[in-house]
Each structure stands twice: as C-alpha cells, then as structure tokens.
Design goal:
Structural class: alpha/beta
Function: Catalyzes the synthesis of activated sulfate.
Number of strands: 5
Radius of gyration: 18 Å
Number of helices: 9
Helix content: 40-55%
Organism: Rhynchospora pubera
Distance between the termini: 38 Å
Order of helices and strands: HHEHEHHEHEHHEH
Domain APS kinase: 40-190
Strand order of the largest sheet: 2-3-1-4-5
Strand content: 5-15%
Bound molecules: 3'-phosphate-adenosine-5'-phosphate sulfate, adenosine-5'-diphosphate
Protein name: Adenylyl-sulfate kinase
Pfam families: APS_kinase
Largest sheet: 5 strands, parallel
C-alpha cells in the first residue's frame, strides 16, 4: 500500500485500487493562487429538477462574477455528458459516478482558486454529500433550485417531460425516478408569491452569499 499525504490524498487512498502511489506536494499552493486571483476557491453546486433553471442560473452567475473580475468556470451536467461523462447514462449507478467525477473535477477547480459553478440534477442526497465532503472549510455551497415539478414541466424547453409522460424516456427524474431535496443546503431559491425570481435575482442571491462569506476577496 502506497503512502499518501496532502490535500485530497485520504480520499484517493480510501477509494483507490492502485498500490504504490504517493502524493506529491507542489511549492505553489491554493493560498498563493487565491492571493493572485483575489478570491477564494469554492464550489457552487446547483441542484434541482430538469427545467428548474440550473443552467440559466449557472450562466447568469458566471457572467455576473466575470463582470466583477472574479474567475469562475461552469461545469454543466448536460455539457459534461458530451465528453468526460459520455460513457454514462441515467441508471442510479451511472448518476452516482457522474456526480463523483464532477465532484472531483470541481474540487480541482476550487483548489486552483476558481469559483467553480457545477449545475447538475444530482438527484441523490448521498452523492451530493460525498462531494461536499471532498471540499475544505465550508467551500462547498449547495444551491437548491426549488421549483415545483409543474413549473419545470410547463417550461419543458427540450420536450423531455413530454417524452417521459408518454413513456418514451424511462427513469426521468421527477416522473419515474426520484429527486431527493437537500436537507442542509446553504441557499434555497424558490418561488415568491407564485412567481420565480428572475435569473439576475437568482444570481444576486448567490453573489450576496459569496460576498458575505468572504469568497470574493483573498
Ligand atoms: N432520464 C433522465 N433524467 C434526467 N435528465 C435526463 C434524462 N435523460 C436525459 N436527461 C437530460 O440530461 C440532463 C441531466 O444530466 P445530469 O448530468 O445533470 O443528470 S444527473 O445529475 O446525473 O442526474 C438533463 O438536463 P437538464 O434539463 O439541464 O437538467 C436532461 O436534458
Ligand atoms: N428564473 C427564471 N425565470 C423564468 N424562466 C426561467 C428562469 N430560469 C430558467 N428559465 C427558463 O426555464 C427553462 C429551463 O431552464 P434551464 O436553465 O435550461 O434549466 P435546467 O438547466 O435546470 O434544465 C429555460 O427555458 C429557461 O429560459
């Protein structure tokens, strides 16, 4: 069994199958990169049903941070399934592996000093909690886009709910596959008096949190 030290090494040692691997520490660390960027690396993890507005929030937030000269990067579930995760479908096992991989990538981005915005349905609480456990010092910020299924289904921009209702897609989240809402999220975005906040209001809610917690300064 190889010995490991340093950030993230414990998880690799616990989960890995390879022997004789060693953690190599580099002289420039997370704190140095954060000072350079004048921000703190973190993961903003947006979870919610298909059509709840995850990608819209991710992009609006990314643009807002960019306009404030903060370095952010969006990891969108749909997009990653075109590359890194193209071998995965939507079984419970594949979704778990999808979230695990994105959690690991998000952790690297945060370690690089970036504000990493991950937007995935991520329907299982345990998988999201595993990602949270990868990140240090409260730097995993879970954002629950709590839109009712009826709202998401009425939007249906890709026509997927229609196909799911017609039985042409099996195992569609919210229809015949589960979604487990967070119990301990940092931010919840929901309807106020029957209407959804605008994209910029949703992003504003997240920016206020990041400001308040000091992520937008070094
Ligand atoms: N069966 C099933 N269930 C849910 N979603 C489905 C399914 N099949 C395809 N799609 C499309 O895949 C997008 C979700 O990908 P994710 O990687 O975010 O899903 S997951 O986190 O692994 O559950 C999702 O994108 P969003 O609508 O942006 O959420 C859908 O476009
Ligand atoms: N805050 C909002 N108010 C009104 N419509 C929205 C809002 N956010 C997203 N939408 C619309 O809802 C649909 C689904 O949004 P999207 O961001 O693609 O959701 P998801 O990524 O969760 O599937 C899109 O047509 C989008 O324009």
């Amino acid at each position: 069994m190889g010995s490991t030290t340093g950030a993230g090494a414990g998880a690799a040692a616990a989960a890995g199958t390879a022997n004789n691997i060693f953690w190599h520490e580099c002289p420039v660390g997370r704190a140095d990169r954060q000072r350079l960027l004048k921000q703190k690396g973190c993961v903003v993890w947006i979870t919610g049903l298909s059509g709840s507005g995850k990608s819209t929030l991710a992009c609006t937030l990314g643009r807002e941070l960019h306009s404030r000269r903060k370095l952010a990067y969006v990891l969108d579930g749909d997009n990653l399934r075109h590359g890194l995760n193209k071998d995965l479908a939507f079984s419970a096992q594949d979704r778990t592996e999808n979230i695990r991989r994105v959690g690991e990538v998000a952790k690297l981005f945060a370690d690089a000093g970036l504000i990493c915005i991950a937007s995935l349905i991520s329907p299982y609480r345990r998988d999201r909690d595993s990602c949270r456990a990868l990140l240090p010092d409260a730097s995993f910020i879970e954002v629950f886009l709590n839109m009712p299924l009826e709202v998401c289904e009425s939007r249906d921009p890709k026509g997927l709910y229609k196909l799911a209702r017609a039985g042409k897609i099996k195992g569609f989240t919210g229809i015949d596959d589960p979604y487990e809402p967070p119990l301990n999220c940092e931010i919840e975005i929901k309807q106020e008096e029957g209407s959804c906040p605008s994209p910029s209001a949703m992003a504003g809610q997240v920016v206020s949190y990041l400001e308040e917690k000091g992520f937008l300064e070094d």
